[in-house]
Amino acid sequence: MSRLNRYYLAPDLVITYPDGQPHLHLPSVKRTFKVDWKVCEIISMFSSEDTSLQPIFSESMITSIVEHLVKNGILIDKETDYNLTIEQIVEEWQDWDESSWFLHLQTKDSKFETTEEGRLKNVEEFRKKTSPAPQYFKCNCTTSSIKLPTPSKLLDQTLVNSFMKRRSCRRFSEEPISLQNLADVLFYTGGILFTNDTHSYGIVAKKPSPSPGGRHSIELYPIVNACEGLRSGVYHYCQKHHALHLIEAEEDVKPFLYDVLYGQDYFLNAAVTVFYTSVIDRLKWKYNTSRAYRLMHLETGHYAQNFLLICTALDLGSFVTAAFKDSVIEEKLGICGIHEVAMYVSGMGHIVFDKTTRSDIEYGQVLPEGIEIRLPIGDHS
Known about the structure:
By secondary structure, the protein is an alpha+beta fold. The chain has 2 domains: 4-107, Outer Surface Protein A, domain 3 (Alpha-Beta Complex); 145-349, NADH Oxidase. 31% of the residues lie in helices and 19% in strands. It contains 11 helices and 14 strands. The chain has a 7-stranded antiparallel sheet with strand order 6-11-10-9-12-14-13, with helices on both faces. A 3-stranded antiparallel sheet has the order 2-3-4, with no helix packed on it. A two-stranded antiparallel sheet has the order 1-5. It is elongated, with a radius of gyration of 26 Å.
């Protein structure tokens, strides 16, 4: 069996047991093979110096299985060229554990239909093989509905001001924000501008924030600490009706926020903290590929950027954080963590400004004239 020394296992090989049977995954080539225990025994020969398993099989059976493994890229011939980039990613990304490089390779170079011709050619086939599109919004307005004020136009604000003044705020006053402020932030982050019926993918919503394929998987859940006209508690924003649904009233939301945000107490005085979730089935309906996992994060980022800019335009401080306990959010919001998952957290409130001159600040060499840069007080100020 010394000739087997010429082969080694593909560095990106991953074995799972989704249905009790072994499945071999090669994310670099997007291939999965369902195999039996005999193949796993042969694979174990290449992952250990222990040769005690070899006598279990005849030489002809081992040869046959090895040939198939080589043919399908699970075993690599040391004498042939191999994509060393794959080995480098697996080796150099080890600190992120296997899920990082597996997801990256599995979602790399995914196929997309990008031309109108390509879409039209496959429309009928797409319609035949899919069920109707999932609803693009969640609505509990029949249970309870708190109508929000019509969004304001913010005529005295410019995009440049929002860019220049946006800072991550780490210290908030305890002053409540207005219901109008909350209405503006939620609408310009995730509110619906209009809907239209498409020839391929049914009715889609258009919002201030962009979304891959117009699927808009993101839902917003405001945790209200101090907002005029609202009880303290956990809410859901109905984008369809620009309204709030009270999930749970709480006299004090700070203990929950302290726990779910891993003790980031500098956010506790924020007037409203917003949890972003993604309803995966909305994206999966159109993009039935692991690439959709990337799209979820991209879409969340679009929403969060709008959140930060509109808060800045309203002279509110804002923050975002990815340090949160997913399962605690899932339990509090009543989501399953399978079809709807936690993605991000942002918050807003009135800023405590730093009016002193900070010696550690060096401004950029190229700034527009007459632009004010404000520095909120933070723990690192």
